[in-house]
Amino acid sequence: MTMAITFNDINISKWIDGILLVTRNVGQNRVPQLDQVGRSDGKMFSYIRADEGTITVTAIVRTDVNKKRRLLADALTTSTPAKLVFADEPDVYYNAISTGQITLDEAYLHNTLTITFTVPDGIAHSVATQTADNTPYKDVPVNLYLNSRTIGDGYGTNNGAEVTVEPFDSTTNMWHIVAPQGSGGFCGIYIGGYGNGKLPDNSDWSYSADIKGTGKVQTFGIEAGDKTPPVGTIGSEWSRISQSGHVGSGDKTITMYFDVANSPLDVYIKLPKLQTGKMPSLWSPNPADPEYYTDTITVHNGGTYPVDPVITATMHADNGLIAFINNQGGVLQFGNPEEADGVERKHSEVARYEGFDKEPAGAAYNTGQTNSHYYYIKAQKNVMEGSVKYADDDGSAVEPVFLPTNSHYWEGPSLHLKTTNASNGSNTGSLIAKWRYKFNSSVNALGAIEMTLDNDTGVAYQVIIRSNYAGKDDVDVQVFAGSTLVFQQTLNRSVFSNGRYYEAKLTKLGSTLNLQLAGIVQGGIKPSEVVTRNPPLIMPPIMLTSDEASLPITGATLWFQRFENYPYPDMGVYDMDIEWLNVDYWTDLKNRFGAGDVVTIDVANRQILVNGVINTNLQMIDNDWKKFRLLPGDTQILTQRSSWAQPYEVEVAFKEAFL
């Protein structure tokens, strides 16, 4: 017998002068597990498994025996299994390795060679790769008309046509075009420049659509350039009508015009298709349309043994989840089912920031809100008056310029600035307000800085640093929510001493109000240099009432005060930073998978590759890899994606195997 045998892509038959016997056996080498139970007769069956298989080739070598034995030895010696192919079944191969001693019985003109191949998996594999996919229209010419089922594009009308877009069914719309008899030709609709950027310049085209009703078509395609007469008839049943032509580099407007000189027009049109070439084809969706892809793939394994597929998913848009479910109950999932294309995130937004190196935009003086309208009684008014200066004093600052004489009680200049709402329109949300200030007081000095977040009707939240006691070097901090004093404490002057810079940080999170006073590192007042050189003052969290928590903020006021004509502290505010916290905003996330990503799922090796690189960050645990072996016959695979994502292209590739 003469038969070519290829091993490891080498034709070993050229060193053999004839095949005497090939033993490939039938099916797998099935080995039962039988267990002895006590002294009972026989054994109990436990399970059966497939062991390795063997293939034996017996051949003769008549000439050049010594040369051929060495060439055969070299070709048959491999460290791993390789493909073994017999010429009588070239469409399959065995993963085999030569084992044992290759014998060569030498006799005159009849040297017998015996080769034993071990097949570890005991099966034959198909040479050809089979594929199944979710793109039933991939072999159909591409439809350049996007969303051709819903036809949501804008259109114009010509020569008195009345047009409505009406549903044909739950997924498909249609144009309904009506015009009376006698208005002449070229009556209908046009879609201006629709082919621009879709049809190449100087190219052939064809346009087609389903149509029914009453009318005489004149043009049905690209308006410019040469074209053939429309093909098809209009009747009471749906039919396909088309036109072809050639367009240059000009405008590529689609027209659907009818002649109504001698008859009225009443037609329905659906499922348009614009394509390159002069041969119109059956309707198909554009690859960007969801209906271009099916959610279920039917995979047919024509072999007689389960095989492991390689699944390739190609993204055409952002997606957070690739998942497959088959009819064996197997699930493969990569990514996060909860991942969103974009999210309502929370971030901080600046309501107002001023460094006070110059006069701020929109500054208003000696106005603003306060809870200190009078001293003790209404007749004892406290007054906003005077001016401020913007100085360079170890950094920019706003400082008070008091009038020479104070004829009131608490008096001094104020600066009022408008704040902006958060991007979601809110001015009552969570916030953080930071004022960096100096307040160098003494035994005789009486003064205050009111740092206020306010609105048109009153104080929202307020921090006051106050030297309030003549003859004592005491400095107090007060906090107001609305008009209610919620916190007051005398500061430790060994900690909050003169000659230092401080930061008052007021935070409102929901219905909780917090204050922290901290020192600023010597020699600077930059935000990054705020440190707790000494233990700061931390106000116990204040729980606000619902009314207090919802006070609007539309501005900020700084009021520098002195009392009567007493000496006053050296004070100033170096910068003010007010930010809205936890503002909801929409952001387009960088998703797990993006347009152009090619994701390969190797079931046999339990690997996932993204753009050819093994990705170990995707979830591998709890996937049903074993259940994704393709059994002989048909397997249904359902594809899953993020709820907001476009469908992706899927191909299932495998090689059939045979017992």
Describe this structure in words.
There is one protein chain. The chain is mainly β and 659 residues long. Helices cover 2% and strands 47% of the residues. Strands 1, 2, 3, 6, 7, 8, 9, 10, 11 and 50 form a 10-stranded antiparallel β-sheet that branches. Strands 28, 29, 32, 33, 35, 36, 37, 38 and 43 form a 9-stranded mixed β-sheet that branches. Strands 27, 34, 39, 40, 41, 42 and 44 form a 7-stranded antiparallel β-sheet that branches. It starts with a strand and ends with a strand. Residues 523-529 and 531-535 have low confidence and may be disordered.
Strand and helix layout:
Layout: E1 5-7, E2 10-11, E3 18-23, E4 29-35, E5 44-51, E6 53-61, H1 65-76, E7 82-86, E8 92-98, E9 103-105, E10 111-119, E11 124-126, E12 130-133, E13 156-158, E14 162-167, E15 173-179, E16 187-191, E17 203-214, E18 217-222, E19 226-227, E20 239-247, E21 254-258, E22 265-276, E23 296-301, E24 310-314, E25 321-326, E26 331-335, E27 342-354, E28 364-365, E29 383-384, E30 387-392, E31 396-401, E32 410-412, E33 414-418, E34 431-440, E35 447-454, E36 459-467, E37 476-481, E38 484-490, E39 502-509, E40 512-519, E41 537-538, E42 542-543, H2 546-549, E43 555-563, E44 570-588, E45 598-602, E46 607-610, E47 613-614, E48 633-640, E49 649-654, E50 657-658
Parallel strand pairs: 29-32
Antiparallel strand pairs: 1-2, 1-7, 3-6, 4-5, 6-10, 7-8, 8-10, 8-11, 9-10, 11-50, 12-49, 13-16, 14-15, 15-22, 16-21, 17-20, 17-22, 18-21, 19-20, 23-48, 24-45, 24-49, 25-26, 25-48, 27-44, 28-33, 30-31, 32-43, 33-43, 34-39, 34-44, 35-36, 35-43, 36-37, 37-38, 39-40, 40-41, 40-42, 45-46, 46-47
